[in-house]
Amino acid sequence: MIITRIASATPIQGQGAADTPPPPRSPLSAGTMPPEGTHTTYQLQYRRCGKPACRTCREGKGHGPYWYGYFREGGKLRSRYVGKSRPDGLPPPAAAEAEAEAEGGAP
Question: Residue 29: what pLDDT?
Fold first, then answer.
């Protein structure tokens, strides 16, 4: 059997050195806030990754806590990942307000 090598073959699209790399994926960050002008409820949540060997999910609450924003869009309840840190501009949690009042602080 004779194997010949073709030197002048055109590269398949996406494999040539002259091709530009794909644009970088944007990381999930605080810039992924729910749409402005919609009533949004924020909640801390733990998530499970689904990997059978994950000790964090198997022995605990899961990964997190992460902030999620819930809002209605077209009659459907939607959620959007906001980030690990508390979104800017949120009022203090109700529990913190109750503690402040009990201590004689301003509501």
Answer: 42
